[in-house]
């Protein structure tokens, strides 16, 4: 069950997107901070509402998590 407005925003953004989105883009499109987007994405993933995968970032050696609605 979706518990907050932030959860609803994130799911809406992911459902409108036709491809997986990074935490940064989710935060930007939802008009929330990156840490808020990150924690809510992990919560939604644990609820089985969204999926994720780790990709190498195009900016240096770091990795980023890509999220999508199930």
Q: Quickly name the level 1 CATH class of the domain at 1-48.
A: Mainly Alpha
Q: Any idea of the CATH topology of the domain at 1-48? A: Arc Repressor Mutant, subunit A
> How much helix, percentage-wise, in residues?
40-55%
What structural class is derived from the secondary structure elements? alpha+beta
Question: Kindly state the mean pLDDT as a whole number?
Answer: 93
Description:
- This protein has 70 residues and is an alpha+beta fold.
- It has a domain at 1-48: Arc Repressor Mutant, subunit A.
- It has helices at residues 5-16, 23-30, 34-46; strands spanning 21-22, 50-56, 63-69.
- Strands 1-3-2 form a three-stranded antiparallel sheet.
- β2 (50-56) and β3 form a beta hairpin.
- α1 packs across α2 (23-30) and α2 (23-30) packs across α3.
- The longest helix is centred in the middle third of the chain and has 13 residues, at 34-46.
- The two termini are 14 Å apart.
- The relative contact order is 0.23.
- The mean pLDDT is 93.
Topology overview:
Blueprint: H1 5-16, E1 21-22, H2 23-30, H3 34-46, E2 50-56, E3 63-69
Antiparallel strand pairs: 1-3, 2-3
Helix pairs in contact: 1-2, 2-3
Summarize the structure.
By secondary structure, the chain is α+β, with helices and mostly antiparallel strands. It has a domain at 1-48: Arc Repressor Mutant, subunit A, CATH 1.10.10.
């Amino acid at each position: 069950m979706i518990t907050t407005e932030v959860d609803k925003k994130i799911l809406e953004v992911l459902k409108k997107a036709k491809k997986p989105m990074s935490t940064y883009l989710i935060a930007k499109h939802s008009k929330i901070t990156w840490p808020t987007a990150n924690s809510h994405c992990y919560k939604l993933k644990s609820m089985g509402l969204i999926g994720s995968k780790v990709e190498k970032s195009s900016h240096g050696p770091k990795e980023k998590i890509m999220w999508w609605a199930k």
